[in-house]
Amino acid sequence: MNGIVLPSADDLRARARAALQRVGATVPDRGTGLRARTPITGDDLFPVPAAGADDTEEAIAAARAAFLDWRRTPAPRRGELVRRLGELLREHKEDLADLITIEAGKIRSEALGEVQEMVDVCDFAVGLSRQLYGRTIASERPGHRLAETWHPLGVVGVISAFNFPAAVWSWNTAVALACGDTVVWKPSELTPLISLACDRLLARAAEDVGAPRDVHRLLLGDRSVGERLVDDPRIALVSATGSTRMGREVGPRVAARFGRSLLELGGNNAAVVAPSADPDLAVRGIVFAAVGTAGQRCTTLRRLIVHREVADPLVDRLTAAYQKLPIGDPFDRSTLVGPLISTAAFDDMRAALDRARDEGGELIVGGERRPAGSAPGAAYVEPAIVRVPGQTDVVREETFAPLLYVMTYDTLDEAIALHNDVPQGLSSSIFTRDQREAELFLSAEGSDCGIANVNIGTSGAEIGGAFGGEKETGGGRESGSDAWRAYMRAATNTVNYSGQLALAQNVSFL
Ligand code: UN1
Question: Active site: which residues (predicted)?
Fold first, then answer.
């Protein structure tokens, strides 16, 4: 039995090569250490050269030198670089989406959506380049002006994950460049090709507008490259996206040298479904949030907390929807669930399912691997729903797979307590038509997450809001709103134009 029909590794190689050529990037033909790989078939595509210690040193020094120039460039002119990058991203939307699908396994619509997110954040950062506002503050002294001024921070080290291999880079880079910073990027080892494409487009944008080439440097490499960024005092801000385990190392190491870190770590996102929820809307919102990107978003819905009265019919409807999910080749327009990133990710999912069963859970649907006869190294999996007797140990952990745990509640207070009783705090939602319930969920006594939604799932945030979460999610905020402040330093200025020396707090001296 062949099962899922897939393109060949040669087809994917040709498609990746064509996309890279169209963006103007060099197709790697020899390499040390790294390999570009596709989860669609599980095959290696190209060898990729990896950066060593010398390359890392050179890149940091170059980005630091470029910073000294870039910080003097007026912010609206810095915005012109980001505008040009946004134009190139629009022009090459399909090429970038191809590379995202090939390396991360995203279905077409989600890969295009990721590129759209990049375009959107460029538009945002162009506007931001004219809005890096500081406040003026009423001085307590006559003839004095008190103000805050925002200045560029330095070199930003961006460490990104495989699941949003391009968008998370763009959130950081578009904002950092507008803020007057330069960037050194260490992407996931799993996604070198899309990284080469993004780097090339930014280099083209820099050439087109006459910005210094070294405002951005890409370092493809293993963990040692990330460690160098973490420990180097020339990296003013380390913006790292990944697991909580990774963040536990990065945070203290950056803090030990008094650097800044911005951490986007694990999520264990939940939705509360109240008795008044619109069932059609809830089912569609839940399925996208739990199953989209094959359950491999930081914002993926992993826990469903359902009122006891509506739990059985809701689970029945979700089960019916899960049984019909088209699983397979992410380039096929009818597919909704592409591959997991690796067979190891499937092993983790199986291990979580086994633990859930041992902890009293009941598998309702899914959890099996779909055979892909031509590609034994690819992991296609049926998204799973497990009913659990409560928030057991495995439910409190993030498993990066399409695995949805369902629990029941009787009172909203109980639902909120369950909701918040996990170590992570990224995204959350409530499905309800009761305004009092919705507002309570959004209030100080409600969800403790960085993102809290009503009648929409936990994933798929727009770039205009700040993105990030609390507790073990790391506390960082990226992308929109005032997240830019993390990429700048504020100076408080007191200017005395009175001709008299007046000391604050009525202190007299001399
Ligand atoms: C991530 O999974 O790391 O809100 C980022 C979302 C996307 C970004 C996810 N806009 O699901």
Answer: 264
Pick from 467, 477, 478 the residue to mutate for probing ligand 1's pocket: most ligand atoms within 8 Å of its CB.
Answer: 467
Question: Are residues 230 and 309 located together in one domain of the fold?
Answer: no
- pLDDT at residue number 1: 43
Do 363 and 234 share a domain, yes or no? no
Give the residue carrying structure tokens 């034994």. Answer: 376
- Residue pLDDT, tens place only, 444-499: 999 999 999 999 999 999 999 999 999 999 999 999 999 999 999 999 999 999 99
Sign of the alpha-carbon dihedral angle for 274, 280, 284, 287: positive
Of the residues 264, 398, 472, 478, only one is catalytic, namely 264
Q: Is residue 123 part of a domain?
A: yes
Sign of CA dihedral 448, 450, 453, 456: negative
Given a contact cutoff of 8 angstroms between Cβ atoms, the answer to whether 451 and 427 are in contact is yes
Number of domain units in the chain: 2
pTM for the complete prediction?
Answer: 0.97
Q: What span, in angstroms and rounded, lies between the C-alpha atoms of 91 and 108?
A: 17
Nearest-atom number in ligand 1 for the CA of 161 is 3
For the question of residue 445 being annotated catalytic, the response is no
Distance from residue 139's CA to the centre of ligand 1 (Å): 42
Report the pocket of ligand 1 as residue ranges, CB < 6 Å: 117, 163-164, 168, 241, 297-299, 459-461
Residues of the chain with pLDDT under 70: 1-2
Same domain, 249 and 303: no
